[in-house]
Amino acid sequence: MPSDRKAKQKDAKKAGTARSKPKAGSSPAAATAANTANEASCKVAFQGLTPRQRAVLHQVAEQCGLGHGSSGEGEQRCISIGATDSNAPQIDIAAAELSDEAIAALLQQHLQLQPDLYLSAAQQPRPNTTASSSNGKPPARSKAASGKAAAAGSSVRYESVDAFVAQMSRLLDMERQAEVAAAQEAATQCSTAAAQARGRTLLNLRVSDAEGGLLGRTLLTLVPNKGFGTTPAVLLPAHKFSPHDVVALKASSAGLGGPPLCTGLVYRVRDASLVVAVDDPPEEGLEQPLRLEKLANEVTYKRLQDTLQQLSAPGNSSRAELLPGMALLDATFDRREPRFAAAAPAWKPVNARLDDSQRRAVELALRAQDVALIHGPPGTGKTTAVVEVILQEVARGSRVIAAAASNIAVDNLVERLAAAAPKLKLVRLGHPARLLPQVIDKSLEAQVLRSDNSSLARDCRRDMQQLNRRVMQGAVLQLLKLEPWKRAERRQVRAELRQLAKEERQRQQKALQEVLDGAQVMCCTLTGALHPQLHGQTFDVAVIDEAAQALEAACWSALLKARRAVLAGDHLQLPPTVMSEAAAKAGLSATLFERLQGSLGPAASCMLTVQYRMHAAIMDWSSQELYGGQLEAHESVAAHTLADLPSVSSNSSASADAAELPTMLLIDTAGCEFDEYQEQDGDSRYNQGEAQAALAHVQRLLAAGLASADIGIITPYSAQVALLRELRPEKLSGSLEISTVDGFQGREKEAIVISMVRSNASGEVGFLADARRMNVAVTRARRHVALVCDSETVSKDAFLGRLVAYVEQHGHYESAAELVPS
Ligand SMILES: Nc1ncnc2c1ncn2[C@@H]1O[C@H](COP(=O)(O)OP(=O)(O)OP(=O)(O)O)[C@@H](O)[C@H]1O
């Protein structure tokens, strides 16, 4: 109750002291070392186990080549494990609450299985299970608490590659239709004003600047026409455009569905402007009021369908050469166990700071002959381990394709690889408008332009231009009857032009081929791997970072190009974005990473356990809820606080304020009557009072000496993002980041303020209850996290209730009424 909490607030001690952490459990890889297939002479039938325990038993049986099967429903559900012979004797074990240790002991007694085999598999984190209690039963949790994590569970299995292809092809069609329908609805079926309200169209814009850049593209800066040139600049209305969106620019006066002046890619989004990269700007029409429309990106769907077709077509030797990844199908579709070399070749880490779990992960990846998984919870150095794997593979002479679902994740990898190995021959494939400026230099286009063959091709072009001028002059002189344009001369010039055109083309192709062939590491998005430029290029190993955010079909686009695969990710963070809810529910958002986590068993996977971002108090919530308590905070971050930041500690009055700020803070809006509202033209939600409370807390952080760039506001609802941006003080618009959870994935801030929005009498929390979404939101914070919410509403959900209780217990409580006086 708030009143109790207020009393508690007075007594509460400063949160954020470093807390000692139990050591991580035994490594899953080590646990399986001594297990070989058993010739069981009997079967053990268990009744009364939890779904988690049954899943672990299935996994253990498959790992050891034992028979297994389930029957019955609900509490009567029974799982048997042991001899494959149906006549073998059966030992029945019926117990309501068997502990994991007891199950392991029974397996040892009757089937001679090492206890560690069951216990280490049971320790593998799964979505929907929290740190299991000693009786092996997961703590009570409402169905909603696991939210979408449940929909995309690790239980997804396909009977065959063809079954997978058929299912995915259907679901991708559903997804494409959903996206096309949304684009068409915005473009034709409603008024332009309604389309703008939905965020897919921006009306009444004008071009404020047009400049060359991005290797030959034109960058058009679009600003609101209203108040053009005034100071302060007029902000764009709330919209859903983001970098890399495919867009059409039309005259405002053009009818709905009318032809565009040009199409392009969103390059940059600011509060008051939006920059679009255009290949071919129109000669006229840009001076009038304009409209920007979001288009469906059909190329991606076409590429994904092409990948599926490649997977399903029967192999032949020439295809096997072009698609070495077909060899991965056996291990990834349960046809055989993944293979590992007994030991990795000797390797000396390039990054001497790698910790033990990172070294184990790299070692596993280097031993893999088919596929290995690196499971990296937040801040544990997944990308750090991936970079090391790539550099070690290159040192062994391998050619690597390194990919991720998003451009930002690929660019992150490119930057880290280039910093670790400046001489590495690395090529970043992709449209320059989709690349971060700092990696443009590594792009295929930039490298091709720098090559000798390109410069020779440019010479050819110059010669052709001169010859063309001669042709023009000759024709004019002839026309004016001043000088005859001799036939032989004409013929010779044309032959020279043909020759030059041919040479230019050949030089350009050669330049492109040389850069592609010379690459030791090819970096691209997963769907970028299907670009025609990579046709015929094959690799020894495909490394996928952020694999748990990628559609499985997209992963195969890169995997088909290499014989071996390493996937790094965290299936307990956000899944891929899927627009069609029906397709997501039917399995489109289930990822390859998660599927393999479930099917390959612990020997093929290594979990990173030391994190380098969060104060231990922040980490512990996530670790206990989602990672079986296995995470450890590195000593460099375990006790760091806001007061230790140089910008704070150098300012004595500010540091006194900062010392008052706890590591975790609950700002409770219960009783404040800060109600949630649904936006008029959509289903997103916002909460005005809560937005004010969140911004008031930001002011407090600034007063304590934090830089605005060190603070982030995260809210799950796009309407609340728009509202917060509107209310954000002008001077903070360029530095204080406000975004949805998705916008912050993979990133971090010293202080994070979370605005949860929901406040209603019925306790509805919608997609807040998705454990993965809240996991990402909380774990973006390095030293401070403030949860702004209506504790009465959100605590109706068991998972969120535990989060609220955790913050109260390990931090400070405060009523929002004190921050936002009524
Ligand atoms: N062994 C290490 N020693 C010191 N710092 C490390 C180590 N490993 C990783 N880090 C640091 O920890 C931070 C997080 O690492 P990295 O980005 O590789 O993690 P991640 O798991 O990919 O993160 P996320 O989950 O946010 O995507 C980086 O600043 C990195 O330099």
From TrEMBL:
Q: Where is the R3H domain?
A: 20-85
- Say which domain of life the source belongs to: Eukaryota
UniProt main location, coarse = cytoplasm
| Stretches that traverse the bilayer | none
Q: Where is the composition biased (Low complexity)?
A: 23-37
Family membership: Belongs to the DNA2/NAM7 helicase family.
Protein name per the record: DNA helicase
Q: Name its species.
A: Tetradesmus obliquus
